[in-house]
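Quick illustration for those who missed Monday's session on complexes.
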Amino acid sequence: MNTQAIIARDDANVLHTYGRSPIALVEGRGMYARDAEGREYLDFTSGIGVNALGFCHPAWVQAVSAQAARLQHTSNLYYTEPCGALAEELCRRTGLDAVFFGNSGAEANEGAIKAARKYSVDTYGPGRSKVLTLVNSFHGRTLATLTATGQEVFHRDFGPFPEQFAYVPAGDFGALEAAAGPDTCALMLELVQGEGGVVALEKAYVEQVAAFCKARDILLLVDEVQTGVGRTGTFLACEQFDLHPDIVTLAKGLGGGLPIGAVVMNRKVADHMGPGSHGSTFGGNPVACAGALAVLGELTDDRLAKDNALAAALRAGLQTLPHVQAVTGLGLMVGVAFADGVSAAAVRTACERQGLLVLTAKTRLRLLPPLILTQEDVDKALAILRSVLESL
Ligand code: PLP
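Prediction with pyridoxal-5'-phosphate bound:
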């Protein structure tokens, strides 16, 4: 099928919930994808932070196909090896104590909210169920995580919403102090707001918030769905903020392309999530867990050190391009703000025509390259961006 036919069939039968580029990708390898006409694209999106090892990494393909050929699914009524192995590795890497597996970022955040409320009701009784989140946050599209998302634009038309959520502006400690009452059980935040425009929180603010929450036993839930699994240069972004939250959520890059989400928590919270408190048919699926184990196996200290050097080179190169006003984010989670009325959406379209896939977030360009990139990929992406920006 050619691109036109693929798009026409999709448009006729799939809900039009996404704003899509007129590109139909049919195969990929490493940093490159190919469309139905054989055109090649250098990928600086990794499927919005998912393909941590790029397209069809041999170790990932091997692990996933071997597991698919051995045991593709049971149910959570039985034990399987990959699920426990992945949970053990996640606990080791995060310093936390127990994991619940789901299938997406929204589900992971939903699980985190449930676990926080369960801890609170068991410890303090009912009525202490309010969850605070930050203005401009993004936590998912299910009703609870949509409510947790501090952006009015996503709420329109979908009410009524679950109760006991409130928003505080990021960076304003006084506002948090004022909003956190005796009814508050948790604060959920992203350390770099991704969909909100690739905006990192200030370390001093995060430290103040963490101390405040600890003093009041308000559980700290860090949504690392986008920032986690090496994206910002450390396994968790938390490490760069010296932060030890009660619950961390992961998804996106964890599965390397298969759907998986994880709620990783400390013993204090985990002890309240007993039999029947939560569940998921597909959660902990052996094939998804095998893929995740392959991702973690490739994410060595050496790889992260290389990624940090490449992130620095990419950021320095971006600063030299015309119309670039600011380069934001952390590590390989990069935002680019433009001056002179340059539109990130127009830059994205022009890049696609020149064979480079990039993203936008609010008014910014967003780059989330696979963590396997090389200096050559950085140079090529910068050259295409330069040519696009010089023509605007
Ligand atoms: N949390 C954050 C920080 C995200 O960036 C996203 C998705 O972009 C989500 C949650 C929701 O993840 P999913 O789309 O897998 O449900």
